[in-house]
Design brief:
The chain is of the alpha/beta class. The protein folds into two domains: 9-242 and 458-480, 3-Layer(aba) Sandwich (Rossmann fold); 266-452, Glycogen Phosphorylase B (Rossmann fold), CATH 3.40.50. 40% of the residues lie in helices and 19% in strands.
């Protein structure tokens, strides 16, 4: 949850959605672990022991007041969360992740039970597998029955490929009844799935784009849970993510060497030069006159790096400059470093994550590349549009929902898009983008349309409110029966 910890788009959503709900007059309390190295200036702190099954820890709550209606609670359990990684280290998950995130769920529920400042709990909204036990515990444990009897449960899937699946022996270790380990609850091919637990125990289930919702109803993207999702019927839907338009605003962005907006984009050229310099690339007129293509993502196959590896030499032969940033699998890190070593005047590489660099990449690049195999929503293409950087994407998930492909007659185009996930199609699409870049009036119109798109949380937040109301109605019906 931004600003406390971030590995991907979930953090941005968890930080921005409560703020948007606050603006709609809704009171929100968010819970996130206090991970290693996170400094907290809390309005108040309280500590209490929590035990369940084989779990037993002293939990300290750091309560940060963001507004009269919005607060964030950092759950501090040093033996579980005071580590150098969030979910794991060295490419491997922590072996006790089931215990870690079971304690997060318990800590949140116990806080809500004891919280006298909130007379009622209307909705519990859990995000991704790490919070999958929250609705399960609230539904199956008598301790929570009275407090949450009228609460609607909403579960949001950010990426179905990561499900939090553990061996069945976690059931007694976490103090769960075996009734939670059935095919209609959390049992998943003989193991225990936190993701499935969250889905089946919730009144409403959402994911982060309409197209991804449709994709996950089939076996290719459903990751073994397509039947479970299909059984939900109209209780499963996709709501396209927004972005924090105050944090991601080229007119006010403190990370940029020059700021710009749709009516005056002169500062974007300053950012482009700064980005080239940051990657040690040439900054002369020839380099500045070429389109600068950026790709910033986790270095995993999902993000399309196999296509990059296959087409690498042909891509670099295009009349363009390239910057890559991210971290992940060593084989992709090595591939990018080798590419930069072979083409030092055309390709720059940064392995790692840097928030300031993330903003500079969006502001300084001309094209942003996202050749993902699948993409539940994607936020980088939304940042790109906001900064006048034209996205080049595969037609999957939220990328398909947000990018309108360029054709000479397309009046609403804001990017480039391809469906056939092959190196040849990627190369052909980028060739088209480079050609269009040379037509300055056409490119200027494309950039103007990109920057005009409303990617704020205003509309998505209202859609979540509709989901919350439906969940409350379903909860009342469940209680009455």
């Amino acid at each position: 949850m931004t600003p406390w910890a971030k590995t991907g788009g979930l953090a941005d959503v968890a930080g921005a959605l409560p703020a948007a709900l606050d603006e709609l007059g809704i009171t929100v309390t968010s819970f996130v672990p206090r991970y290693g190295g996170v400094a907290v200036d809390a309005a108040r702190r309280l500590t209490r022991p929590i035990t369940r099954g084989a779990l037993g820890f002293d939990v300290t709550y750091h309560v940060v007041e963001r507004s009269p209606r919005r607060r964030e609670v950092l759950v501090d359990i040093p033996p579980l969360f005071e580590r150098s990684g969030i979910y794991g280290e060295g490419g491997h998950d922590y072996g006790d992740n089931a215990e870690r995130f079971a304690m997060l769920a318990l800590a949140a529920l116990e806080f809500a039970v004891d919280d006298t400042s909130a007379p009622s709990v209307d909705v519990i909204h859990a995000h991704d597998w790490e919070a999958g036990l929250v609705p399960l515990l609230a539904r199956f444990d008598d301790r929570y029955g009275e407090r949450f009897a009228d609460a609607g449960f909403v579960f949001t899937i950010h990426n179905l490929a990561y499900q939090g699946v553990f061996d069945r022996d976690v059931v007694p270790r976490l103090g769960l009844p075996w009734s939670t380990f059935r095919i209609d609850t959390a049992e998943f091919w003989g193991r225990f799935s936190f993701m499935k637990a969250g889905i089946v125990a919730s009144d409403m289930v959402t994911t982060v784009s309409p197209t991804y919702a449709r994709e996950t109803l089939g076996p290719e993207a459903g990751c073994g849970l397509d039947g479970v999702l299909a059984a939900l019927g109209d209780r499963y839907l996709g709501i396209l993510n927004g972005i924090d338009t105050e944090v991601w605003n080229p007119a006010t962005d403190p990370f940029l060497p020059a700021r710009f907006h749709a009516a005056d984009r002169a500062g974007k050229a300053v950012c482009k030069r700064a980005l080239l310099e940051r990657f040690g690339l040439p900054v002369g007129d020839d380099a500045m006159g070429r389109p600068l293509v950026a790709m910033m993502a986790r270095l995993v196959s999902q993000k399309g790096f196999d296509l990059i590896a296959e087409a690498a030499d042909e891509l670099v032969e295009l009349d363009a400059m390239w910057v890559f940033a991210g971290e992940g699998e060593p084989r992709y890190e090595e591939m990018l470093r080798n590419l930069s070593a072979r083409y030092p005047s055309r390709v720059g590489v940064f392995v790692g994550f840097d928030e300031q660099l993330a903003h500079l990449v969006q502001a300084g690049a001309d094209l942003f590349l996202m050749p993902s195999q699948y993409e539940p929503c994607g936020l980088n293409q939304l940042y790109s549009l906001r900064y006048g950087t034209i996205p080049v994407v595969t037609a999957v998930g939220g990328l398909d929902d947000t990018v309108r492909p360029y054709t000479p007659r397309a009046r609403h185009a804001n990017g480039f898009k391809f469906r056939d996930q092959s190196a040849a199609t990627l190369l052909r699409t980028l060739r088209q983008a480079v050609r269009v870049y040379r037509d300055r009036p056409v490119w200027a119109d494309l950039v103007a349309r990109a920057m005009a798109r409303d990617s704020s949380w205003r509309t998505p937040a209202r859609e979540y409110v509709k989901v919350y109301r439906r969940a409350r109605q379903l909860a009342r019906g469940r209680r009455d029966t």
